[in-house]
Design brief:
Layout: E1 6-11, H1 19-26, E2 32-35, E3 44-48, E4 51-55, E5 68-71, E6 76-77, H2 79-91, E7 101-102, E8 107-108, H3 111-124, H4 136-144, H5 157-178, H6 186-201, H7 207-216, E9 221-224, H8 248-253, E10 262-270, E11 273-275, H9 288-296, E12 309-311, E13 313-314, H10 315-324, E14 329-333, E15 343-351, E16 371-378, H11 395-408, E17 412-416, E18 424-426
Parallel strand pairs: 1-9, 1-10, 2-5, 2-9, 5-7, 6-8, 10-14, 13-15, 14-17
Antiparallel strand pairs: 3-4, 11-12, 15-16, 17-18
The chain binds guanosine-5'-diphosphate, 6-O-phosphoryl inosine monophosphate (IMO) and magnesium ion.
The site of 6-O-phosphoryl inosine monophosphate has 24 residues, from helix 4.
């Protein structure tokens, strides 16, 4: 029997680890790239030939003409935002429409989800989550409440109209009477759906069935995670999380792929830590070093443009993700951002009075004084920017990589040394 060549790429911090860049790099040998969960809360940046493209819904292999992009059933899909992204890419000369495949089971993100997301965040004030305001939470809520509209509903417009009326009644009641906001227009949503549905309907295919055949035929497929595992609805820093499973489970339920057909799982980890939105962040920096990392790493959100919070690499948090996500190897990104630092800190433990310390990050009960224990590593103070060959890496940078491997107990298979596609060192390619 032929072995499958499916690999999974997961962010293993709080998102924005550089998944887009890594998937773009790996895609040159791939046939399919699949988005599995999340929605247009994601912002994946690709830089190639001096062009910067930020993708929110379309898989990050799209710049390669050999790639067939797929959006699996676990993704919550805004038809309006999808169309915007298609137009944007077409303006860049990238052909999408006869390549993109959509699962009929994707839940739709509609205008009332966005309104509700924004209304709630405003209402919560300083207790808000800091969402991207893209309607992601409400859309997943409708899915679980078994009242969501899906792509498949576009094939039965009469039925869709009835369901839409019912859902909109619930939303508009809350928006008007509780949040004191304007209600959302039924006609606006319906007109948008009618205009877009013919384009979308042409892209619909049974994704799980396709992936079964693809796996049998040994075609290299990349399953692209969105967000990061610390934002997972179950395993993340609840309630400061997103509304999907960003861990390996989300890849499986979000596409229907068999776990037996996953050959390799790559965890993408930034050489330091960032987070957008609120929630615990034990290694966060509020000093000049934090400002420096933010500036050198250009840490501004790819989706909302918000300044990202910045801190040292938290190996306690990362280590917890390795086992339950079946990580096979790690790609460390943004090594070059550390180039000028005299010393680099890595968090190897938390000093904490409670015996629940290993659950602290995942509980809402994180004490204010969860103090990180740091190991200090000497900086290399030489440029690694754009390095593609391991031998060209300064010895101290290599020592840093080896120390991370020791602590984490997993091999670092790739080192990303710049935002451009080819700025990467391959240490081990095991797929
Ligand atoms: P994603 O959401 O995980 O795809 O990450 P984002 O695209 O939101 O944020 C990562 C940012 O870092 C983007 O601006 C990338 O262009 C950039 N980037 C990715 N890898 C590297 C790297 O190795 N070095 C540097 N300097 N920038 C990188
Ligand atoms: P990529 O794929 C970083 C964060 C938001 C907020 C929380 C909930 O680019 O790594 P949501 O809008 O999902 O309800 O917001 O999750 N968040 C992300 N942070 N990168 C992302 O995606 C994110 N997607 C959501 O900032 O804290
Ligand atoms: Mg991002």
């Amino acid at each position: 029997m032929k072995m499958s060549r499916n690999i999974v790429v997961l962010g293993i911090q709080w998102g924005d680890e550089g998944k887009g860049k890594v998937v773009d790099f790996l895609s040159k040998k791939a046939k399919y790239v699949v988005r599995c969960q999340g929605g247009n809360n994601a912002g994946h940046t690709l830089i190639y030939n001096d062009k910067r493209i930020v993708l929110h819904l379309i898989p990050s292999g799209i710049l390669h003409s050999n790639i067939i992009p797929i959006i699996g059933n676990g993704v919550v899909l805004s038809p309006v935002e999808l169309l915007k992204e298609i137009f944007l890419l077409e303006k860049e000369g990238i052909n999408i429409r006869n390549r993109l495949i959509l699962s009929p089971l994707c839940q739709l993100v509609l205008e009332y989800h966005v309104e509700m997301d924004i209304a709630r965040e405003e209402f919560l004030g300083n207790k808000s989550i800091g969402t991207t305001g893209r309607g992601i939470g409400p859309a997943y809520e409708d899915k679980v409440a078994r009242r969501g509209l899906r792509i498949i509903d576009l094939f039965d417009m009469d039925g869709l109209c009835l369901k839409l009326k019912d859902i909109l009644n619930i939303y508009n009641f809350q928006l008007k009477f509780f949040y004191k906001r304007k209600s959302v227009s039924y006609d606006l949503i319906l007109n948008n759906l009618i205009n877009i549905s013919e384009i979308i309907k042409d892209m619909v295919l049974d994704v799980t069935n396709l992936l079964r055949k693809v796996s049998k035929n040994n075609l290299f497929t990349i399953f692209e995670g969105a967000q990061g595992v610390l934002l997972d609805i179950d395993y993340g820093t609840y309630p400061y999380v997103t509304s999907s499973n960003t861990t390996i489970g989300g890849i499986i339920t979000g596409t229907g792929i068999s776990i037996r057909d996953i050959k390799y799982v790559l965890g993408v980890m930034k050489a330091y830590t960032t987070r957008v939105g609120f929630g615990p962040f034990p290694t966060e920096l509020f000093d000049e070093t934090g400002e420096y990392l933010c500036h050198a790493g250009n840490e501004y959100g790819s989706t909302t443009g918000r300044k990202r919070r910045v801190g040292w690499l938290d190996l306690v948090a990362v280590k917890k993700t390795i086992y339950s996500n079946s990580l096979s190897g790690i790609c460390i990104t943004k090594l070059d951002v550390l180039d000028k630092l005299k010393e680099i800190k890595i968090c190897i433990d938390y000093r904490c009075t409670s015996n629940l310390s290993s659950y602290m990050l995942q509980s809402g009960m994180l004490p204010d004084k969860l103090e990180p224990v740091y190991e200090i590593i000497p900086g290399w103070q030489k440029s690694t920017c754009g390095t593609k060959c391991l031998n060209d890496l300064p010895l101290l940078a290599l020592n840093y990589i080896r120390r991370l491997e020791d602590i984490l107990g997993i091999s670092i298979d790739f080192i990303s040394t710049g935002p451009n596609r080819e700025e990467i060192i391959i240490l081990n390619e095991r797929f």
